[in-house]
Design brief:
The chain is mostly beta strands. 2% of the residues lie in helices and 51% in strands. Strands 3, 4, 5, 6 and 7 form a 5-stranded antiparallel β-sheet that branches. The relative contact order is 0.07.
Length: 366
Amino acid sequence: MHFDGTTIDTFNITDSSVNSDLQPSVIAMSDGDLLAVYNFSGSNIIYAYYYNSSTESWSTQAQRYQVDLGNENAVEPKLAIDSNDNIYVYWTELNTSYPNQSGLWLSIFEKDGHNFSATDWSTPIRLSGDSETNDIYPKIIIDAQDNAHAVWCDEDLSSGIFDIFSRFYDQTSSTWQTTTAIESESTLTAINPYEFYTSTSRKCIMPDITINSEGNAMAVFSLLNEESKQHYLHVNTFDINTKSWGTSASIAYIENGSSVDYYFRRPEVVMDAIGNATVLYTEVGNDSEATSTAKYNEYFPGNGWNDAYSIINATDISTISSTSNTYKSSLLPTVTQKSNGDLVGVIGVTHDNTSENTQIFTLEFK
């Protein structure tokens, strides 16, 4: 699909008559070229297609490139881009004994004019752990100096403990530094976002990470102490001068007792050049999204984190929505930051009626 500001054009860039093409991701380069990747689910292979803006055409199926190792266990490809239009393609590589083993892998597409060939790709490398870990929900982000951060949730298969890990790519030395635990308290574990309502085992939620123009980073993640039923939303910061992470701190907390399962779902974080930050997330309760509330916390250097606020409520909905349905819950906020520092968010809102109607709203934070 291509939008030129007036019309939307669609293109079928893949041709799978039998298997499904899933988990697509696309990224734009400074000259208007595009790189798209997806999971060819019939074989769990990751393919890449290239859009040449000078010819206004996509590469053909015969020209597509297989990014992964060819073990037919690659899923969930994602993209990040540096200042030279080099593209980091990263994915989860499943072991044959999955879900007990998986790893974070990376291949880099090096921009070379409008060309697209096998010689433009680096050999895939494993960024995370070893064969005795289950590394899930990764994210890579790149700063203005082309340093990169990778974060993921790591399950130690021998101990059953979940940690949040990170690796830093130092552009100066052109090397990936050793793996660092952003959060490794053995008494705390997190919740799997695809198993929202279970609390019988330790699970983790995908961490998010942001970076500002100075190169300082901030990671946010959800943690659970199963025995005490205490749930936390944690943050940690990376100092570009020392090239190290600090100590994680809790910015939100729930103690829910034994009968109700509350937790923090899918947090996202953004940060500006001077270190002001905003975290958005869904607070889920009563073993159901029926009582979900989308909230945010703000951070200001020198003042710390403020209390949580609801992003939207029933009064807001009655003002901006044409529906007569009763507001029920808000969930899954996502956010991006404009060049002037203002935030633009997208949020889902459900209504208390028989059809479980859900609407999507956009909001601007100034």
